[in-house]
Amino acid sequence: MNSAELIASFADFAREKNIDRPTMIKILEDVFRTMIRKKYGTDENFDVIINPDNGDLEMFRTREIVDDDSEDIWDYDKVPLAEARKIEKDFEVGEEVVEEVKLEDFGRRIVQTARQTLIQKVKDMEKEILYIRYKDQVGELLSVEVYQVLGREIICLDAQGNELSLPRDQQIPRDRFKKGDSTKAVVHKVEMNNGTPKITLSRTSPVFLERLFEQEIPEVTDGLIMVRRVVREPGERAKVAVESYDDRIDPVGACVGMKGSRIHTIVREMNNENIDVINFTDNIELLIARALSPAKVSRMSIHKDEKRVSAWLKPDQISLAIGKGGQNIKLAGKLVGMEIDVFRETEGPVDEDDVELNEFSDEIDQWVLDEFHRVGLDTAKSVLAMGREDLVRRTELEEETIDEVLDVLRQEFE
């Protein structure tokens, strides 16, 4: 293989991998200089000139002529006068000899090794470029094609055919994919493992929902509406706080759309995850009240130092505030950055004979009391009034535990 063929084959391969011309020349020069060092021990007195467009390669070795008896004749950049005069008879001591080095001088084995080295360098460069490109795209939304469905992950392809990973724990629980499907995800994490980039996608990240809002809702895309906060229980429920920079635009109405047309597009992409859109405000009390929707809060007490909120609601609003499996109150707490405790608001005159549940902390474990508080029961009589069957249904306590608590509370009033 001559130099033109070697460089041309490498240049074609590099162009396929989108390697730019300056980088291509640098790789070629590095490889040829490595060949020179292997053969001559150094490349300091060599010039390498490459033109990948037409396959031209020129390598020149420059040495200073010294006397045949000089102690410097063994230096890499010196040549004895007798040897120099074999090249040109009228050379004198002190002059320079410039010799052209041909690719054929290196031997077939070194040239073949160089070709393999060139291809490997391009592959390494391609990996580095891929890593750098995706490192800057963390949090960006991508449309990808499912290439292979594995047990722990799904291998997807981007528009350039690069392989990306969508792990099982980054998929929405109801996601079901097969080869050839198109889906959307955000770039979640980019790592370099043993020289190979690993790009991890996510559909469970709150950022995924935020990017869908930016893509599907023109006012968010244009910057008229800002997505301020997003919290999720992937596959179940999400809350999104939005704010409008234009007083004429209702941010919630714009995001939901006419008859829910806009939000339905996002809900379908997220496999029917319920999405509550609320109007963001700097008024923390109002934000908490909105976060607990669809429940209506009667009053609340905010303990900023403890990052805790006590909210009182009418009896028929307690279950709405808590939500299925405690999802609503959990997400509301994440949205406002505080723990929220809900309590049943007393209707009518206060029962002076009733006793706060917390007063039974010496007989009942605190985690049991917390579970009653979670469903809005904060006094002994409110627990007894609900009855055993409703307590079993509404709390996550064992029946045996509920029976023990009921016995303790009944004894208080006997």
TrEMBL record:
It is found in: Cytoplasm. GO terms for cellular component: cytosol. GO terms for molecular function: DNA-binding transcription factor activity; RNA binding. CDD domains: KH-II_NusA_rpt1, KH-II_NusA_rpt2. One of its GO terms (biological process) is transcription antitermination. Residues 285-347 form the NusA-like second KH domain. Transmembrane segments: none annotated. The keyword Nucleotide-binding does not apply. It comes from the Bacteria. InterPro entries: KH_dom-like_a/b (IPR015946), KH_NusA_2nd (IPR058582), KH_sf_prok-type (IPR009019), NA-bd_OB-fold (IPR012340), NusA_N_sf (IPR036555), TF_NusA (IPR010213), TF_NusA_bacterial (IPR030842), TF_NusA_KH_1st (IPR025249). Residues 5-128 form the Transcription factor NusA N-terminal domain. Keywords: Cytoplasm, RNA-binding, Transcription, Transcription antitermination, Transcription regulation, Transcription termination. SUPFAM superfamilies: Nucleic acid-binding proteins, Prokaryotic type KH domain (KH-domain type II), Transcription factor NusA, N-terminal domain. It holds the Pfam family NusA_N. Residues 203-279 form the Transcription factor NusA first KH domain. Participates in both transcription termination and antitermination. Monomer. Binds directly to the core enzyme of the DNA-dependent RNA polymerase and to nascent RNA. HAMAP family: NusA_B (MF_00945_B). Belongs to the NusA family. PANTHER family: TRANSCRIPTION TERMINATION FACTOR NUSA, TRANSCRIPTION TERMINATION_ANTITERMINATION PROTEIN NUSA. This is Transcription termination/antitermination protein NusA. It comes from Siphonobacter aquaeclarae. The lineage of its organism: Bacteria, Pseudomonadati, Bacteroidota, Cytophagia, Cytophagales.
